[in-house]
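Sequence in, structure out.
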Amino acid sequence: MTGDALPGGVGGRVPFGARLAAAAADHGPLCVGVDPHPGLLLEWGLTDDAVGLRTFARIVLDAVGGRVAAVKPQSALFERHGSAGVAVLEEVVAAGRETGTLVVVDAKRGDIGSTMAGYADAYLRDGSPLAGDALTVSPYLGFGSLDPAVDQALATGRGLFVLCLTSNKEGHEVQHARTDDGVTVAAAVAARAAALNAGEDPMGSVGLVVGATVGDAAERAGVDLVHVNGPLLAPGVGAQGAGPRELTRVFGSARAQVLASSSRGVLAAGPDVASLRAAARRAADEAAAALS
């Protein structure tokens, strides 16, 4: 079920937060990354060009489309092939819509003024071939710089995932820094998302990206994940090291809001469609057990 297909809600659509909650209830709280790394293309016996990229994407969507809550194509791995690669990304967005699978475009866009408005137009506007159901964005030019994306997303029933606590070793340099008010940048980002989601049921559409391998970072940074009242996209599940124990440690009582993201943990089972499908089902079941 995608934003373009459902009646009701903002702009004639059920908002992304509600659609994601329904999809997770139906299929489990799992988002499968569509990440055509050069090495993975080689492992699958595919060429590192637009032809191999298209075959890779088709196999992944054949395996998991309509069977998982969401898919998350990594825009950079399509962009590296130029316009032909971006065309394949557009096909992934369209295929997700056709199979009723939510598409989170992982582009981590962040800029100011008319440039941010341009990104919002490209990835969140009705009719744009790159507009999935949600977009990852970076708030590190100030949360207010995201206003064009916030406005466009909420007006069209789409969602955002705002970087908050990432698992890269450099992330703490910015995310754990403190503002003049004495709160960490990560906590300030979470609070802004919470304000946008206030009163939404079952949850709002402005989520956060919180790495599944960040340990007690939320506690140390004073980030209140429970009251964000929005989805928490958790990369790092599976091959990157996060299992049930890590998910519980990171998210605590906010576990019900988590959308676990697994890329290599599922894609390693390819290119056989049945094996990919089985790997995704296992990952979804494991995430559901860990987050229940």
